[in-house]
Amino acid sequence: MKTQRCDGGRILVRLAVILLSLAACTGALAQKKAEASRVLIAVNEGGAANADATETVLRFEDFGQIVSKAIGAPVTIVAVRDRKVLREALRRHAYGFLFARPNDVPAEAIRDWGYQAVVNAKEPSRALFIVKSDSPLKSIKELKGKSIVTPDQYSNIWRVANAMLRDNNIDMGSEKVRAMRDQAAIGWSMEGGFFDVGVVNSVSGVGRTWEMKGGRVLAKSVDLPNMPLIASPDISAAQILKIRAALINIESTDAGQAMLKKIGLTGFRESNAQEFLDFLKWLGDLKPDQQ
Fold this sequence. Notes:
With 291 residues, the chain is α/β, with parallel strands linked by helices.
């Protein structure tokens, strides 16, 4: 009888261990499934912002919750600043969404990799050619032979500046051009008189304050898509409609206005693929080694 009780006890212990192991496996599988269903939102603010990755994730957390509620799935904000990394990930459809200030990369994702236009920021961006108040320059047509400082070579604002000069019969590749990643540094260089003209994004700190500080805008581009949100082919048309409606109407609530202020926008408008295709056609394509 004693032996039978011992055997029975061992069986119960083994059974308990098996059940605990099954529960642990089930929990792990459920966690992996939840992680797999999580949608990534890549955020790229380009050279107009200098936030680190942690700051970007925290600042766009409320935006992510709005998207999450609209699509009915958990989301994760991922800060991505490197354009090559971003392009490669978009090519693989690694991100469910991209929310980016540089508008050429989202445009390429729409044209080449099946991404869908959702919304743009209500306020457009522009490339600004800035000069000091006492500059003798009066027109973009006078920039041949002048020293020019721009954002990173082949960045979106660089490409816009290149197209504007091209339209005025000036080859940027033949001019004295210096590129800087930080647009604040472009402003300091212009204030110091190190260049004849600078190029900045109108929504950057320099772009917003240059004229207030006494400088002049020599030329400005046409309105450009600003902070477009695009969605991967995996996001359904019904989900896109819900996201678009939620974001366009977000400014009607106090919480929505607080979220917009947090990310530096005033609101959203509907966007469409054609405006991005037209934009890319005007820019002209980069060569593979320029991307």
